[in-house]
Design a protein that fits this description.
The complex is a heterodimer of chains A (337) and B (378). Chain A is of the alpha/beta class and 337 residues long. Chain A has eleven helices and 13 strands. Classes of the chains: A alpha/beta (337), B alpha+beta (378). At the A-B interface, α1, α4 and α5 of A face α9, β16 and α13 of B.
């Protein structure tokens, strides 16, 4: 399967009449996502790319039975859009909009949780389950169906990692960008947990960056709960301390949250950290081969380990055998498109 | 965004938090005047956006106005951790009996504001936090319920025994929380919160950082931005809606997305080059942003090559390509430019770029290597 979105996802687009909303609604639809409705207050009754537009999320849900929503409205209205989606009963809300005040996010977060919904983002590229559904802005052309789960705090850097995997023939189960803000709806651990539980995911790539301690927390979680191979990349190794690097999250302060800290924590949890996004596929192949060779390795969660050995038998065998030749081409940065 | 101590004290005073009387001065003569008006010994405090001002010699005691003038002369123009002092706050020198600490920050892990108090405030608070963490008391506040007065009192009891002082401190904590929330702060801090010989509880220092995402609705605070205290290129970039940080290297980088921009810098370093900057053109890009980005980078005399790395998602490669063509027409760059555009509308982009005939590369690693090669040696 996949995590969070799949073939059954029925999506509404909040802010569908804006430049980004209309462009990406079309792209999502072309990819095969069931884009069942759009919402823009005052534009109800119209159509965009033959997608019906409603005035309210509630109307859209009633008419279409939508179960997921993606938000492209401007920052000053995006918080309200999240509340509106949750109140209309949407269970998966993906907020692409960037620039949401952290104070508002601190209030939204518990509200979403209390209502049994999941928020992904804000300030994120969304997610894609190849050949099933795409919600957000990730380019559908770079993904390929397969067994690698990708989770990242970044946007475009995620595409870089996905493309590197695709070029090496390593397809993905779900790729998800969780956003780089201080307060986000879904974090690394939520995704790692979901990937660990997902049968179609055989290995995991986690892309982090400087600032905060989410990667360190994730490293602890991996050590305890994740039996699938995990490879990481951390951006910001050369960033000077005290400087804000664009993302609200990407700031090193008081000597904590540095790339070195995070790499150390991940290595300690048995997670190799790539020196460049293009090194990720090679590291992952090595690790998959190794973990297949000795499956007794860190069997903290017994039932998961049991699941893994059965699931593992079939899939990674091929890629492991192909590995040496494939690795040489990575080193040269080969790309076909 | 950061504001200065004197500005933070204005915000505190408006909120009803007691702060010592004082005013900001840019010249020794002004410092003299303010001190004379106060007619008591004063502190002359440098106003720069860094911590540890006192230890760097940027905060001094002056017995009288004449003394304040001499000290202002010394402190204005002084360099503190790479920043030039342009203003000093001249403020009443309180007789300090005790020093405590009160701070509120956003805790990413719990997604709640956390209030931290300590009876061991003052210049060594970081050491206190590291060596004797039991002296720091923390309270995570439910952002929906808000801070309740009993919670503020519970914290205040950790600071004082005298009930009048407990009440005063609790009141300050309530008001400080209100400032944190209503002004979209990412940090508010009083270090030290003092008691004086009269038993008054006073915020002797004030620090406020604002969440940039909240600035659009904080007009009064946004107007406090001190452009003089910032790197000019960074100010220009912000006005062009670009996220930019100047660095010391020679490869100018234009990238979309903060993570990819950092990764690009990391690879420049990995392959033996030095990045001249961090520059993120952001999400849905209009071509004008690319022109501004090229201009800002060309203004840096250290730059010997420009690397443009775009992985299109919401950013459309054709928009960027149009921007590059416009930049070439308007600015006629004197240094080599190497591009790599991939993702959304990539084919259209390369068609547009045919008119300027630029070297390009297919992968992240290759575009970085190419840029380093084109930059040559100085």
């Amino acid at each position: 399967m996949s995590i969070f979105i799949n073939k059954k996802t029925k999506l509404i687009v909040q802010g569908i009449t804006g430049r980004d909303g209309s462009f990406h609604a079309k792209q999502m639809k072309e990819y095969g996502t069931h884009v069942v409705a759009g919402v823009t207050p005052g534009k109800g009754g119209t159509k965009i790319n033959s997608i019906p537009v409603f005035n309210t999320v509630e109307d859209a849900v009633k008419a279409t039975g939508a179960n997921a929503s993606v938000i492209y409205v401007p920052p000053a209205f995006a918080i309200d859009a999240i509340y509106e989606a949750v109140d209309a009963g949407i269970k998966t809300v993906v907020c692409i909009t960037e620039g949401l005040p952290a104070n508002d996010m601190m209030k939204v977060y518990p509200y979403v949780r209390e209502n049994g919904a999941r928020l992904i983002g804000p300030n994120c590229p969304g997610l894609i389950s190849p050949d099933q559904s795409k919600v957000g802005i990730m380019p559908g052309s770079i993904v390929k169906k397969g067994g690698v789960g990708v989770v990242s705090r970044s946007g475009t850097l995620t595409y870089e990692a996905i493309w590197a995997l695709t070029c090496e023939g390593m397809g993905q189960s779900t790729c998800i960008g969780i956003g780089g803000d201080q307060v986000i709806g879904t974090n690394f651990i939520d995704c790692l947990e979901a990937f660990q539980a997902d049968n179609s995911t055989k290995a995991i790539v986690m892309i982090g960056e400087i600032g905060g301690s989410d990667e360190e927390e994730a490293a602890k979680f991996i050590k305890k709960n994740v039996t699938k191979p995990v490879v990481s990349f951390i951006a910001g190794q050369t960033a000077p301390p005290g400087k804000r690097m664009g993302h609200a999250g990407a700031i090193i302060s008081g000597g904590s949250g540095t790339a070195a800290d995070k790499i150390k924590a991940l290595n300690k949890a048995g997670v190799p950290v790539a020196g460049s996004p293009t090194e990720i596929p090679g590291l992952l192949k090595d690790l998959m081969k190794k973990s297949k060779a000795k499956p007794a390795n860190k069997a903290a969660v017994k039932k998961a380990a049991a699941k893994k050995t059965t699931a593992k038998k079939t899939a990674p065998k091929k890629s492991a055998a192909k590995k040496p030749a494939a690795k040489k081409t990575t080193a040269k940065g080969k790309k076909k498109k | 965004m950061k504001i200065h101590e004197y500005q933070a004290k204005e915000v505190f005073a408006d909120a009803g938090i007691p702060v010592p009387e004082g005013q900001v001065a840019t010249t020794p003569a002004e410092a003299f005047e303010i001190a004379q008006k106060v007619n008591r010994p004063v502190m002359v405090k440098s106003q720069v956006h860094v911590g540890g001002r006192g230890k760097a010699g940027g905060i001094k005691y002056a017995e009288n106005a004449e003394n304040a003038k001499i000290l202002a002369q010394k402190i204005v123009g002084m360099d503190i951790k790479g920043l030039e002092v342009k203003k000093v706050l001249v403020t009443v020198a309180e007789d300090i009996i005790s020093e405590s600490y009160v701070g509120i920050i956003l805790d990413r892990a719990t997604k709640k504001p956390v209030i931290m108090v300590s009876p061991a405030g003052g210049v060594d608070i970081e050491e206190v936090a590291a060596k004797t963490p039991e002296k720091i008391f923390k309270l995570h506040v439910d952002p929906v319920k808000g801070l309740r007065p009993f919670q503020a009192r519970n914290l205040a009891y950790k600071l004082y025994r005298d009930i009048a002082q407990v009440r005063a401190a609790a009141d300050i904590i309530m008001k400080l929380y209100d400032v944190f929330w209503s002004k979209d702060c990412s940090l508010v801090e009083i270090n030290p919160l003092i008691t004086n010989t009269n038993g008054d509880v006073i915020a002797l220092d004030a620090k406020i950082n604002i969440d940039d995402n909240g600035l659009y609705r904080q007009k009064a605070i946004a107007a406090m931005r001190d452009i003089d205290a910032e790197e000019p290129a960074e100010v220009e970039a912000r006005e062009a809606d670009l996220s930019f940080v100047k660095l010391d290297g020679y490869i100018g980088c234009i990238v979309n997305g903060a993570g990819l921009a950092m990764a690009t810098m990391d690879l420049v370093k990995k392959y033996g080059g030095e990045p001249a900057n961090f520059l993120d053109i952001g999400g849905s890009s209009n071509p004008q942003k690319v022109v501004s980005a090229v201009k800002i980078i060309l203004d840096d005399p250290n730059v010997r090559a420009i690397l443009i790395n775009i992985f299109g998602g919401i950013t459309r490669c054709d928009d960027v390509a149009n921007g590059i063509v416009a930049a070439f027409k308007q600015l006629n760059p004197s240094v080599p430019v190497v591009v790599r555009l991939t993702g959304t509308n990539e084919k259209e982009a390369y068609k547009i770029l045919q008119s300027v005939n630029l070297p390009s590369a297919d992968t992240l690693d290759n575009v970085v290597k190419k840029a380093i090669e084109l930059a040559g040696t100085a």
